Amino acid sequence: MRQGLSFEAPSVRDGDWEQMLRLFIQPDTEADRAKLVGYMEQILFGLQEFLHNHVGVTEEIGLKELALGYMDSTICFEPEKKLPEVISDIIDRIAPQAVNVSSPYFVGHMTSAIPFFMVLFKAIVAALNQNVVKVETSKVVSIVERQVTARLHRLVYGMEPDFYEKYVQSTDATLGVFTEGGTAANLTALWVARNRLLGPREGFDGVEADGLAEAYRAYDIDRCVILVSRRGHYSMRKAVGVLGLGNRNLVTIDVDGENRICLPALRRKIAEYKADPRTRILAVVGIAGATETGTVDPLRKMGELCREAGIHFHVDAAWGGPTLMSDRYRHLMDGIELADSVTIDGHKQFYMPMTCGMVYFRDPFHLDAISYHANYIIRRGSVDLGIKTLAGTREANSLILDSAIKVMGRKGYGMLIDHGIDLARKLAEEIRKRDNLQLVTAPELNILTYRFCPTPLKEALLRSCGAERTRLNEKINDININIQRIQRESGKSFVSRTAIDKGVPGGGETVVLRVVLMNPLTSLSILKEILDEQEAIYREYYSSLDLQGTGV
Amino acid sequence: MRQGLSFEAPSVRDGDWEQMLRLFIQPDTEADRAKLVGYMEQILFGLQEFLHNHVGVTEEIGLKELALGYMDSTICFEPEKKLPEVISDIIDRIAPQAVNVSSPYFVGHMTSAIPFFMVLFKAIVAALNQNVVKVETSKVVSIVERQVTARLHRLVYGMEPDFYEKYVQSTDATLGVFTEGGTAANLTALWVARNRLLGPREGFDGVEADGLAEAYRAYDIDRCVILVSRRGHYSMRKAVGVLGLGNRNLVTIDVDGENRICLPALRRKIAEYKADPRTRILAVVGIAGATETGTVDPLRKMGELCREAGIHFHVDAAWGGPTLMSDRYRHLMDGIELADSVTIDGHKQFYMPMTCGMVYFRDPFHLDAISYHANYIIRRGSVDLGIKTLAGTREANSLILDSAIKVMGRKGYGMLIDHGIDLARKLAEEIRKRDNLQLVTAPELNILTYRFCPTPLKEALLRSCGAERTRLNEKINDININIQRIQRESGKSFVSRTAIDKGVPGGGETVVLRVVLMNPLTSLSILKEILDEQEAIYREYYSSLDLQGTGV
């Protein structure tokens, strides 16, 4: 019965080997090709149409209820479904209950709509299915990866043209590596810094070979510390833990009133550790676009300080890096070129699909500190990119970035950056105008935080102190937690929430609402709608707020 | 001039914000939609047609020459190219100089053709662009990921149904995690083992918090060792290095005549380290499908040994894991269910596009040893999957695996596994029949190695000893290196080469040719063609082999 349907129903239900082979080759009849195009149209338009028409962020259904439909843990012997059914299921059942991160009303995380061509590029990369761990499975794609790596290195460091002439395709040098994401990029940077700081010396083969305990004995020290502001991304803590350094040795430095690392405090800490013969400073980390506030540390001053003290300076520009593409705002990254290593994410402000991270090194030979070889591939001296990466097998995401840069130019990416930053400033103005709201962190890039703090509460706060003030702040925190949750659950818009310690003067842990503006379809009027909805939620749930009950 | 072409030429050359927005929304006219379908057809058919017609592995052009075309390191302000040009470039310029890993003549690495629907699924994942680090950016997709994780866990461990009933959607438990690939999976397993072995005790907060040097002091030891056979993947060495344990503490155990870990030697080593109060055994690693030989270690015996000795038993089944889908061959994985943790790759024998790794844990709470939290996401007690992964942002590859399993069933994957193993056995027979060839490692799964060793040289080897034998072996190694290189460079077929120490009795480092059989389009007659080509190369270059000159 199914013979005539072989391509239409590409499953192996019939156990037919011929049918299996059909899955691995392209359709050769016009009718079969038309069906394949049909699938793709289903994906491109069915899915995209859903995502774009369904402006809301997600359907209203609780996670627990949703989970009940996904309890079966068996794998059937016979195929459970045919391909068209699986695709339809994704479009009709999964997509509506996923999160529409491409909605202009989804402004809560570092994820947004991406240009439609990114999906095409991702499909190309999957169809080519190259493995850039080695040239034997990638050839020219490894060469393209070297080129786009040099392009980004130049964007960050702007060395002389002859530097790039020499190193762009040099198999000895490595200007940077692509990673799974920012976490792996930060880990790679600190891994390099660790291995360089605790390299081989007499009677010791280096930390990579001999391990950390041996290294501390060889160097006669008790610990290594990494310094970062308290706005550092949690991946730093994780990286330090993985590397065996102990994540308590990630020392967080206080921030100033604008959420930037406090330079005098950093200087004091460096001096303190320098004076302690049992401690080494492994790295200082600057942030170029803090996850929670979008703040950029004073990179130039940090870089100078590190150079003076001979410390590895890493900049986590996972978020902010692409700001370098904007002529208007690249000055916000001033000093980034002093970094020994820089993390930039592709899936953030390069608008690539999940996932792509990168880490760049000023010195083309620093990555040698983590090189690994194997007999069957990535042989010593070879041109294989996998010698100096944390990952083995790796997707050719570099080809997506390379293609996107060609289509967009600095101009295109610059426009997106400019839009986000400009819009964030307008939103900040709007928030300042509204009595119920309080801007907590003003935007430096395209991220800001604010909170609900209606006038009577603001005034009460000013009059209060001690336990009274703590209790009031907790009350305000609760209000914000509830407003964010109710808005999220109602499914039309999404802002995120986080907690910033000392977010407001005299406050402790301050719950804030966080807006990230990267979707070019998000406009000020959409943002006003989002604020209006929040105000409506506030009125509905808190109009009868018993200010007496709160101690006011 | 370009106004009418806005969608046809989706670039921002004109600096028009409207045009930029068009990149982020789907086309709304019929004509525009047709153009988008056109692009996709270009990719699906242009690219696929090229890959399938161009049976050869790659075009003849040296890497150095190729690199000359990719020297420019600048990023243009204006877009360099329009989208259709970039796509055409990839199809016409990149693809021919990439490696056609989908060719049935490409049998050298663990990469092959993948079912065409995988490209569709990858496009879907990119279009949805969910970030499974947290439910706020993935919702139902996180739930799907939990389900497919339970499915694979059950395939590996086969616990009772009520175990899965309880844990499949439990937010407390974690049956496994998706990773970038096998390296990250192995790293995750050893990271968990490290943190569990060196957990908190009085006056010590655990290795993750306090670091390794502190941990060794608290436990009064000098080192931790990890034991694996000398056929272990190089990612083990890398993982041990990253974790700060010192990669010299990856202790390699000898193998028996069939490339399986030598159990008596393993027992001796375990006893030796157990007797040393200054050393702890962090893990024993079993291999289920060695990268170079495809061998499977005696997992059951290793598992029993580890259980008895209270040692974490990790199985690297990155390659072999999907053998569990085959009713005929799943017995080759016997004992895998005794492992504390198991690595399986999706982009290998689950035929997923690059990249997808996974690691499963028998105990649903072992992954707690590496949990990390952050304020703005993945809050303590939340259902966010990112709490227990090395990566932060993560692509929803789980959706691809889930979909593929539905379309293929165990039956479909089983057929692929069976084909590879059966074909490898036939190839082994064929090699045994040919006088110039010598089978070095017989296939257990679908990988084998062999070498050119013509009869006169074989006989001379038998008569020789000492330096004479070494010199002869080196000569044979050279021949094999050359044959593999010439065949690869001529671009039609690809087998890989590696070096196996003591590959042949009395031999030292033995260069071998390695065949990996996973492409269902590869047949015995294609393999005979590949061998014939090698024999022809041998005749052309070595017919006049001066046996006197080689000392024979």
Ordered list of secondary-structure elements with their pairings:
The structure is a homodimer of 552-residue chains.
Chain A: H1 17-24, H2 30-53, H3 63-67, H4 83-94, H5 116-128, H6 140-157, H7 161-167, E1 176-179, H8 182-197, H9 207-210, H10 212-219, E2 223-229, H11 234-242, E3 250-253, H12 263-274, E4 279-287, H13 299-309, E5 313-316, E6 341-345, E7 357-361, H14 397-433, E8 437-441, E9 447-452, H15 455-463, H16 466-490, E10 496-501, E11 509-516, H17 524-542
Parallel strand pairs in A: 2-3, 2-4, 4-5, 5-6
Antiparallel strand pairs in A: 1-7, 6-7, 8-9, 9-11, 10-11
Helix pairs in contact in A: 2-4, 5-14, 6-14, 8-11, 14-17, 16-17
Description:
Two copies of one chain form a homodimer. With 552 residues, chain A is α/β, with parallel strands linked by helices. Chain A has three domains: 3-100, no CATH class; 131-395, Aspartate Aminotransferase, domain 2 (3-Layer(aba) Sandwich), CATH 3.40.640; 416-542, Alpha-Beta Complex (Aspartate Aminotransferase, domain 1). The first copy, chain A, has helices spanning 17-24, 30-53, 63-67, 83-94, 116-128, 140-157, 161-167, 182-197, 207-210, 212-219, 234-242, 263-274, 299-309, 397-433, 455-463, 466-490, 524-542; strands at 176-179, 223-229, 250-253, 279-287, 313-316, 341-345, 357-361, 437-441, 447-452, 496-501, 509-516. In chain A, the strands form two sheets. A seven-stranded mixed sheet of chain A has the order 1-7-6-5-4-2-3, with helices on both faces. Chain A has a four-stranded antiparallel sheet with strand order 8-9-11-10. In chain A, α5 runs antiparallel to α14, α6 (140-157) packs parallel to α14 and α14 packs across α17 (524-542). The longest helix of chain A has 37 residues, at 397-433. The relative contact order of chain A is 0.11. Mean pLDDT of chain A is 90; it is low at 1-14 and 548-552. Chains A and B meet through α1, α2, α3, α4 and α5 of A and α1, α2, α3, α4 and α5 of B.
